[in-house]
Design a protein that fits this description.
- Strands 6, 13, 14, 15, 16, 19 and 20 form a 7-stranded antiparallel β-sheet that branches. The protein has a 5-stranded parallel β-sheet with strand order 7-2-1-11-22, covered by helices on one side. A 5-stranded mixed β-sheet has the order 5-18-17-12-21.
- About 25% of the residues lie in helices and about 20% in strands.
- Strand 1, helix 1 (about 10-25) and strand 2 form a beta-alpha-beta unit.
- The chain is built from 14 helices and 22 strands.
- By secondary structure, it is α+β, with helices and mostly antiparallel strands.
Length: about 525
């Protein structure tokens, strides 16, 4: 159907855009590769979901945890139920070259929402400096997205600056470690505020009413309570105007008069496919989107610069231990947020996500000092009672970048080359943050283990985008896009993922990426 809107990608931005279009009464065809969890693993997941927590077979649980690997530098590339399917085949199909796999594309059904941390937070006007949009422009679309995803949140001190955009937040019960730290922080709220440190409950895209507190969150939730855009896709399938076609890798897009031509390749046979639509919304993920745009425009050997919200891992030690953390039944996603504003450190805010005990802590400690702590169970247990971890995120202005270019290869097969470039600002800002937290130990209730700080490479946070940043005045031949995500003078092709972010603030990226995708799609529906 030539009057269809074609949406490329089934991740959070693709489903948010499709939801906006369906809501406006337009037919949508979603095109995707759509890799899924292996049947063997899915059967085990289904078995756990059908049985009570106390009857779970330890061997089945360990089977789904297989592949998780953590050390003092944090969690290795996150898998889902022990499977790497969220990343499988994508780098090869894009012919991607990037050092150390610091950023990976996804061909999975649901994209990287299969393995995200589910933390959500909107941007305010301070975060949106440098954008051609304001908080008011995004507010109705944050509300629309909040109706699409579950929200575990509290109305706390952060709500004044970062609205919840939902009338029915369903708080998650914090771990005992988190509850103790939160109580301590509340008692020193004034002193912390004067130091530019604000705090609150985490906000997590998860259902809380049926949570069994099984602690498997980082491996995967057997009850599917952590939001995955597959859930939005399932709802979209109920609409007669929506269709989903998997098994296709999109190669190029082209405007032809009043229509768009999408050229794709069948992943099973390699056969070419062509699809026609009235408009095309590209939500393929930043690397796949870059490849599609560069190849479609013939921009070979012409680099574009991706921006990144770089993050670091900072171990923390609570001043008071919490006995029995290894046996506690709790969720293991982010528990608390710290928002730090200090002009001496950065012109932008810094965002810290605090995690309390999970089984990966024990795995990491067992590798410290050649396994010394593993041979000292008493010392290890004492440390686990106090150990927490902060994932500390920076604004893209304080982070490294990733230069991406499309190179002609042998036999006409082009390859996508991505080269991360660190920034000297990153270490300075992060180490300054660690020192600041250390100075406020007694007010925070924990010691920042600054010597154990680990700074990850650009792209490793997966909070990456901005290759085609939105602008009020884009040029027809530059890499900027207009406020509807249209680069290079395109009229009917829109980028709706984080590829169009002018900057990436320190706090979470997916909520705003979905809201902006919903905004662009809703606007295109009225053109």
């Amino acid at each position: 159907m030539a009057q269809e809107y074609i949406v490329i990608g089934s991740g959070p931005t693709g489903t948010a855009a499709a939801s906006a279009l369906i809501g406006k009464g337009h037919p949508v065809r979603m095109v995707d590769v759509g890799l899924r969890l292996e049947d063997e693993r899915q059967r085990v997941v289904d078995q756990l979901a059908r049985s009570t927590h106390d009857r779970w077979a330890p061997a089945a649980v360990e089977f789904l945890r297989k592949g998780a690997n953590a050390d003092s530098k944090g969690l290795a590339l996150k898998q889902l139920f022990g499977s790497d399917f969220p990343y499988r085949d994508a780098s090869e199909a894009l012919r991607l070259t990037i050092p150390n796999d610091s950023l990976k594309p996804s061909f999975a059904l649901g994209g990287l929402s299969n393995v995200w941390g589910a933390a959500v937070m909107p941007y305010n006007d301070r975060d949106l400096r440098g954008w051609p949009l304001s908080e008011a422009d995004l507010a109705p679309h944050y509300r629309a997205v909040a109706a699409l995803i579950p929200m575990a949140a509290e109305r706390d001190d952060l709500a004044a600056e970062y609205p919840l955009y939902t009338e029915r937040p369903r708080p998650a019960r914090p771990s005992r470690q988190a509850a103790r730290i939160l109580e301590h922080l509340r008692g020193r709220r004034g002193r912390l505020a004067r130091a530019g440190i604000r705090f609150g409950h985490s906000r997590i895209a998860m259902q809380t009413d049926r949570c069994r507190q099984c602690g498997l969150c980082l491996a995967g939730c057997p009850d599917a309570l952590i939001y995955n855009s597959r859930q939005s896709l399932d709802r979209l399938r109920d609409h007669c105007g929506f269709s989903y076609e998997s098994g296709l890798v999109v190669r190029t897009v082209e405007e032809r008069g009043e229509h768009v031509l999408v050229r794709a390749e069948d992943t099973s046979t390699g056969a070419p496919r062509e699809l026609r639509g009235i408009r095309c919304l590209i939500a393929a993920g930043v690397l796949s989107t870059a490849r599609i745009v560069l190849e479609s425009l013939g921009w070979f050997d012409r680099p574009v610069s991706m921006i990144d919200s770089q993050y670091s891992i900072l171990p923390l030690l609570a001043l008071r231990g919490t006995p029995g953390v290894e046996q506690e039944e709790t969720h293991t996603l982010c528990q608390l947020y710290l928002e730090v504003g200090d002009p001496a450190l950065s012109d932008h805010g810094l965002h810290c996500q605090l995690y309390t005990y999970n089984d990966l802590f024990k795995m990491a400690l067992d590798k410290v000092g050649g396994g010394l702590l593993a041979r000292m169970p008493g010392a290890r247990a004492a440390l686990l009672r106090r150990l927490m971890v902060a994932a500390c995120f920076l604004h893209s202005d304080d982070s490294g970048r990733i230069e991406v270019r499309l190179e002609r290869g042998e036999g006409g097969a082009a390859r996508l080359v991505a080269e991360p470039t660190p920034s000297p600002r990153t270490a300075r800002v992060v180490r300054g943050l660690a020192r600041k937290l250390l100075r406020h130990t007694w007010d925070l209730g924990f010691v920042a283990a600054a010597p154990a700080l680990h700074i990850t490479a650009p792209g490793r946070s997966f909070h990456t985008g901005g290759a085609f940043p939105m602008s009020n005045r884009p040029g027809d031949a530059d890499a900027r896009s207009d406020v509807l995500g249209r680069p290079a003078g395109w009229r009917r092709i829109h980028l709706v993922d984080a590829s169009v972010f002018p900057t990436i603030p320190a706090n979470t990226i997916t909520y705003t990426a979905m809201a902006n995708a919903h905004r662009i799609a809703a606007a295109t529906a009225d053109l």
